[in-house]
Amino acid sequence: MKVLVATEKPFSGVAVKGIKEVFDAAGYEVVMLEKYTEKSQLLDAVKDVDAMIIRSDKVDAEVLDAAKQLKIVVRAGAGYDNIDLAAATAHNVVAMNTPGQNENANSVAELVFGLLVFGVRNFFNGTSGTELKGKKLGILAFGNVGRNVARIAKGFGMDIAAYDAYCPAEAIEAAGVKAAKSQEELFETCDIVSLHIPATPETKQSINYDLVGKMKKGGILVNTARKEVIDEAGLIKLMEERQDLKYLTDIKPDADAEFAKFEGRYFATPKKMGAQTAEANVNAGIAAANQIVGFLRDGITKFQVNK
Ligand code: 3PG
Q: Mind giving me the DSSP string for 229-256?
């Protein structure tokens, strides 16, 4: 069996070592395609592989057409909006993610607070900022990342609320977090809102002018989820009208140049950094490798997302 690890944004060295050990033990060959810049490189690399591990790398119908031997693609991480699931099914390719890998979620959650401290201290520009203690944090979607954000926020002494369309209020309250009745209520009542929703047809562009416009004076929106959930034109219009709002994001918007005019109120990491820690890479990367061996050797489809 031949496995391709296709990562435009490479895993840490220690994660690659761990992934290779899993495949060595199974007797599989591993090929690496890291930091590729052209889609043609990916199309070439997938030609003769049986399995592949990806991160946010796009696997669309063209990639699947080129991957004649491919049986399984595993997205090392949580969000799998980068895989064309219908095309994978049509090509008889099993698609999986690696859910429930806590380090992957924790690393994103820690970055939320890196962005927040940077934001409330005015991007370290020498002026007096504010503290997170006592501020109300709204967590939009209470999955693994949202739960880790809540855990860390408790250490900061924040007042914490969450809303999740798919998670009952009792489960949120059981984690010691106030359950908001709607996402509108979350935006209305919180000083800071942190997004942890996946990019789906329902959520795309759902964080819009009206919703963010409900935030109190001095509101901060943090996005470590996906750029697609933001209505960029709406948010730009709102930030033009409201000089008090800040937008901090780990995913550069398409309209980065336009957002950049909000100096001191907008920050985007140069490259998506949420899951870019050694711990997260080891966690998600080795889980992906084990899932590939589990599928190819034993037919285990537990984390298949294109059923
Ligand atoms: C995820 O969905 O797991 C995170 O967004 C991480 O994405 P990345 O692999 O591009 O860092």
A: GB-HHHHHHHHHH-TT-EEEESS--TTH
Q: Is residue 279 a contact partner of residue 107, using CB atoms and an 8 Å limit? A: yes
| Closest by Cα among 155, 107, 81, 113 to 248 | 113
Ligand 1: centre distance to CA 129 (Å): 30
Listed as own residue / partner, the contacts of 127-133 with beta carbons closer than 8 Å and 24 or more positions apart are 132/156, 132/157, 132/158, 132/192, 133/157, 133/158
pLDDT, residue 2, reads 98
Distance of CA 101 from the midpoint of ligand 1 (Å): 12
Bridge pairing between strands 2-7 and 29-34: parallel
Is pLDDT of 101 > 90?
no
Write the pLDDT tens digit of every residue in 130-143: 999 999 999 999 99
Q: 26-35 pLDDT, tens per residue?
A: 999 999 999 9
Total Cβ atoms within 10 A of residue 90: 12
- Residue to substitute in 272, 277, 283 for testing ligand 1 pocket (most ligand atoms within 8 angstroms of CB): 272
Q: Is the CB of 78 under 6 A from ligand 1?
A: yes
Ligand 1 lined by 285 (C-beta under 6 Å): no
Q: Over the stretch 48-86, which tens digit does the pLDDT of each residue have?
A: 999 999 999 999 999 999 999 999 999 999 999 999 999
From the CA of 7, give the closest atom in ligand 1: 9
The residue whose CB lies within 8 Å of the most ligand 1 atoms, and thus the one to mutate among 5, 35, 55, is 55
Cβ of 101 less than 6 Å from ligand 1: no
What is the 100 CA–ligand 1 centroid distance (Å)?
13
- If you search the block for the tokens 């880790």, which residue do you land on? 148
Contact between residue 32 and residue 5 where contact means Cβ atoms under 8 Å apart: yes
Strand partners, 248: 222, 267
